[in-house]
Amino acid sequence: MIALSINLNKIALLRNSREGNYPNVVEFGRRCLDKGANGITVHPRPDGRHIRPHDVYALRELVAEYPHAEFNIEGNPFAPAAGDYPGLLKLVADTRPHQCTLVPDSDSQLTSDHGFDMATSSTALQPIIEQLKTLQVRSSLFMDPDNEQISLCQQLGADRIELYTGPFAHAHQQQTDSLDALFKAHQVAAIHADALGLGVNAGHDLNLHNMPLYKTIPHLKEVSIGHAFTVDALLMGFDNALEAYLDVCSEGAGT
């Protein structure tokens, strides 16, 4: 089975549109875990657009109640502290998540839209990877399906990569001529990563329509899904949507 980690950013975005704590992000996280989700993902940003630092601390306490669930914090390790945002590594050091996914995004981006360029980022990432090892936190690097770049991840000592699936998802939705080539690139990248000893995660715009194909990627361990899950929860009901995503992650997954 491919582990399903639910990203709660969009629940927090809805909450932040009003004063108060409604909807309650922690209670939605609890509902995910009670219904069988394998983990919770959050991606706090310095601008506080959705998940905020207090959510990170509260959700870490929640996940600790579920022995087999994992907590994954995503973010840009180079983004400076701002307001009540103390920086990604401070949050990681305080909460000790099971996994930290490093992502090269910025506040100017609507969402994450590319992987690291290891040719320019390796030197700066090296001490961060080492710090995560010291904290006993699994490291994962957000990457495009490029074998040369993935090899550099292994040289840095990263534990996993997270393949950026945005272009694949777009091609699948539009049924463009590039779909086959993109899917093949992800297959090759996953096989290459596994051969190097890197675990393979994936995320960004995966949904109930494209997961039946994408889950056949070899060696895929985990997917993080938030935006599409939230939309489907509105259409199908929260519990029905979660059951559908758990089903699509468990049936006929690649090895």
List the SSEs and their pairings.
Layout: E1 3-7, H1 9-15, H2 25-34, E2 39-42, H3 53-63, E3 70-75, H4 88-95, E4 99-102, H5 118-134, E5 138-143, H6 147-156, E6 160-164, H7 166-174, H8 179-195, E7 199-203, H9 211-214, E8 220-225, H10 227-236, H11 238-250
Parallel strand pairs: 1-2, 1-8, 2-3, 3-4, 4-5, 5-6, 6-7, 7-8
Helix pairs in contact: 2-3, 5-6, 6-8, 10-11
Description:
The chain is an alpha/beta fold. It has a single domain (3-250), classed as TIM Barrel, CATH 3.20.20. Helix content is 45%, strand content 16%. The protein contains eleven helices and eight strands. The chain has helices at 9-15, 25-34, 53-63, 88-95, 118-134, 147-156, 166-174, 179-195, 211-214, 227-236, 238-250; strands at residues 3-7, 39-42, 70-75, 99-102, 138-143, 160-164, 199-203, 220-225. It has an eight-stranded parallel beta barrel with strand order 1-2-3-4-5-6-7-8, surrounded by eight helices. α2 runs parallel beside α3. The radius of gyration is 17 Å and the shape is globular. The termini are close together.
Average pLDDT taken over every residue: 95
As for the CATH topology, it is: TIM Barrel
Content-based structural category: alpha/beta
CATH class call:
Alpha Beta
- By CATH's scheme, which homologous superfamily applies? Aldolase class I
- Please state how the strands of the largest beta sheet are arranged side by side: 1-2-3-4-5-6-7-8
Quote the distance from N terminus to C terminus. Answer: 9 Å
Our count of domains comes out at: 1
The biggest beta sheet reads:
8 strands, parallel, barrel
State the CATH architecture.
Alpha-Beta Barrel
Compute the number of strand runs: 8
